[in-house]
Amino acid sequence: DGRKPANPAFWWVNDKGEEVKWSFEELGSLSRKTANVLSEACGLQRGDRIVAILPRVPEWWLLNVACMRAGIVLIPGTSQLTAKDILYRLQASKAKCIVTNDTLAPAVESVLSGSQFLKSKLIVGQGSRDGWLNFKELL
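== medium-chain acyl-CoA ligase ==
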C-alpha cells in the first residue's frame, strides 16, 4: 500500500545476534501486564519501592516503563553488586520487592534475613527457584 513500516518502540540485540523488537502497541501492552504483575502478584502499591538488579535485558526496560505506569519507585542496581551492597540497598530503600536473574539470586538469598521489608522476589529467567516468582510465567 506504499506506507513505510512503523519504527519499533524498542529494539534490543544481544551479543549473539538475538533480537527483540516491540512496536509501541506491544510495549504498551507488555508494560501494562508487567504493572499488573507488580501490583497483583507482588502486592506493590503506588509509592512502594522495587530493587532491580539485572543486566540490560528487555525485562529491565519493561520494568522501567511498568513502574512509571504504576507509580512504583524503581531502584536500579548493577549486576556487579556484592551481597553486602545488595543488603545495604534493601535496608536503606525499604524495598518491598527485588527483581534479579538466576546468576544473582544466590547473592540476594544470602542476605534475605537482614531485610525485614522485602515481601516478594521476582526472578527473570527460564528456570524456577524456591520462594521466587517467575516473571515470564506471571507475564
